[in-house]
Amino acid sequence: MTRAQGFVPLDPMGFGLAAGIVMGGATLLFGLLLKPLALQYGMGHAMVGLMTAFFPGYSLSYVGAMIAGIWSFLKSFVLASAVAWLYNKLV
What we know:
Number of helices: 3
Distance between the termini: 9 Å
Mean pLDDT: 90
Oligomer: single chain
Largest sheet: none
Shape: elongated
């Protein structure tokens, strides 16, 4: 199979790292912002249950937000690295 003209291969490690940092940071920030909303205004309890399902160890605390950020980083890193590797193989 020949490569498409203008094909630029993706670096799976770099692509995974970029996705992990963005998603892990966003999840950490979201977890930190969710605590005051849930405690002060009574909002976001459904989201807390959803985050608990996706990120084992998550709780409505600063440590829980860090745990969710780490889980999100790991999951995003693995998925994005696999996508970049598959892209390089198929294109």
